[in-house]
Amino acid sequence: MRRSRQGSVGPDAKARGAPLLVFTHGSRDRGARREFLEVVNGLRQRLAGSSAPPSQVVPCYLLHGRPGLRTALRGVADGNRHAVIVPHFFFRAMTLKSVVPRLVREFPGDLEVTVTDPLWPHPMLLDILARRVAAAGRGSGTGGPGTVLLVASGSTDRSVLREIRSLGRALSNLVGRPVVVAFFDVSRPRARPAAEALLRDGAGPLTVIPLALTHGLQVQGLVRDLRAVGGGRAARVTLTEPAGLDPRVSEIMAERYLHARAT
Fold first, then answer.
1. Across residues 13-42, what is the average pLDDT?
2. Which CATH class is domain 4-119+246-262?
């Protein structure tokens, strides 16, 4: 019988060589798709040296890329009893709460599928963000990064918004700086008005961290918005690289896979 597991997994996930499906939302931007594949390659390299490397590492997409998750599952079902899906998502959004379980549930055959947790909660993600703040402070010439604007994808799921704001509070406590959460889309406040308000209110140097997985269309829009802030204030804004491009993201995902195998 096939079972789908979320996060915590049982001994049936231990089979050596279980294929790994790296599932992401996907992007219309070619550069973002290339960056995702670089993350997948980093994950493959990390696991190659483990005691139980996956027999296959397959990137798959919800939108804007091939194969889709259903096709990827078909591709690994032959000759395998188990597969592990590691989401290339920061939070357990509705895609991971409803779409993935439905696709797994409807998949024919006896393939046992384990779905791991996304990137958060994992302490390494918090450390990645804290290092972004520290690097911005060293490069600002002002003695510190000032206020931090953490920009994430919005959501209609209130639990996801609570997670994002909780991450912002944890980051503020860790770095000893004010952290304001804003959003690319859907939710409020949006990034540009939030940045303008902070600078207008004298928040000091502003460090903007995109909580994004790649330099996709959202980040490109954020760059344009910050340029449009205007005047001398723009020189007080430091935009960091997207958090998802830190090499340790693949380390988090490798740990998720290995935990699924060992628990």
1. 89
2. alpha beta
The predicted pLDDT at position 10 comes to: 40
pLDDT of residue 230: 54
Q: What is the pLDDT of residue 107?
A: 92
Please give the residue that has the higher pLDDT: either 203 or 23. 23
pLDDT score, position 13: 42
Least confident range from 94-98, 168-172, 224-228: namely: 224-228
Q: What tokens appear for 152 in the block?
A: 């994430």
Class level of CATH domain 123-244: alpha beta
Q: Are both 4-119+246-262 and 123-244 of the same fold?
A: yes
22 forms bridges with which residues in the sheet? 59, 86
Strands annotated E in the chain: 4-6, 20-24, 57-61, 82-87, 112-115, 147-152, 179-183, 206-210, 237-239
Q: What burial letters (b/e) apply to 83-102, b meaning 16+ CB within 10 Å?
A: bbbbbbbbbbbebbeeebee
Q: Which two tokens stand for residue 55?
A: 């027999």
**DSSP state for residue 64 in the 8-state scheme:** S
Q: What is the pLDDT of residue 7?
A: 54
Which residues are within 8 A (CB) of 201 and not within 5 positions of it... i.e. 6 or more apart? none
Q: Are 248 and 130 in contact (CB under 8 A)?
A: no
Average pLDDT, the chain: 89
Residue ranges per structural domain of the chain = 4-119+246-262, 123-244
| Per-position DSSP letters for 106-121, written without gaps between them | H--S--EEEE---S-S
Q: What SS3 state is found at 40?
A: helix
Contact assessment for residue 65 and residue 26, using Cβ atoms and an 8 Å cutoff? yes
